[in-house]
Amino acid sequence: MVYDLLIRNANVLDGSGAAHFRADVAIQGERICAIGDMPYATAITIIDAQERYLAPGFIDVHTHDDTNVIRTPEMLPKLTQGVTTVVVGNCGISASPVTLASEVPDPMNLLGKLEDFRYPSFSAYANAVDAATPSINVAALVGHTSLRSQVMDSFTRPANREEIANMEALLSQALDEGALGLSSGLAYRNAIHAPTTEMAPLVAAVGKSGGVYTTHLRDEFAGLLDAMDEAFATARSGQVPLVISHLKCAGAGNWGGASKALGKLETAAQHQHAHCDCYPYTAGSSTLDLGQVTDEIEITITWSTPHPEQARRPLKEIAAEWGVSLLDAAKQLQPAGAVYHNMSEADMQQVLAHPLSMVGSDGLPNDPHPHPRLWGAFPRVLAHYSRDLKLMPLAEAVRKMTSLSAANFGLTDRGVIRIGAYADLTLFDLKTLEDTANYETPIAAAKGIEMVIVNGKIAYHQGTISDQRAGRMLRRTERILQSIPTFHPN
What is the per-residue pLDDT for 489? Predict the structure, then answer.
């Protein structure tokens, strides 16, 4: 038999967390068809891995690439760091089911401009992704704030019964059409007025359909533990698996709280399906939120609609120059984006290393001066935190960005290297692997990612992007709950 693609002499990390093993990997069509020592095998294309590491393609479980996979289908920030699948629709904001007649509400403006919200149904969005043929695969959540934008005349109150019913109808249709589940961003001003009574029936609809519920908690600062309890209770009531988005102890007064937060996550995971995601940095990035303006941390403005000239400057400098308080300066800059240096390294490392956490970049591709996580999150975990700091074994780091992610989001036959699985693969040189993006120069491709294969096709090879993109929309067809193991502490 002549295979389509044969990768020889690879150190295979299969995604399970097991140690690597030396093997050849053969691909026929979209799937892996043979693994082992195959010295006499032939193929149309043969790649000598030269003992580099071959892993399942990385799955970025926390992205805001909703409209970018259509507008910029090459998806360079993700492909160049070994990502083969993105989960979009996080933090309560999604591109569908949404149409807008006027200004894009905050933080939906992170996803694009008014003309980018033109998908009245999930199927319309999914079909647009397929038509764009992105270089990577796409799976999508439906955002709670996006649902609110379609049925409410004001965000500054709870939804009434009719509005909840209308949101539930939109959500149920999207779930039927292949959405992964529901996301919420309850900390944001356009969702913070949504009480548990608004969320509960929506989450229950997700549970009935077999999807997943992800949440940017109502409070990541002093009220973190109470916000976690709210999320656990809502998911438990709706009988749905839960993912806490970018779990962190934000704010200088809350540093050192990771052990308590993770202890609470462990306790919950013994009784319900609960996980979290984490990005490997101590700064967050979002729209400029007046509630996060403080002199205790460094805040850098990344963009401002009324004052674009102030981009890439510290808020403290702008306020001093204008002779106003930090809060007044922030008000004058809005709408705007910001990077908040609001976490401790020790807390972040604890969350990142925990067996219940996955890796997600939370990158903002529409920010003109993005946080470096957009281009560097996955190589940073492997090179800096696993290889250099020994925070976790390499195989465990890979598990957190492959098989665990696929299980939590119901991505069948992905996130693993085994016969029959889709050939989503990343070949990397651990010796040279490095995330080159930083806060000063955030748009920079990683070093050491040698090759990325998506659905059996070479998408990226030694710095060159293929002009034959093979990504697609991954519509959910199974109940996610069935594929996630319950946590049992050692």
Answer: 66
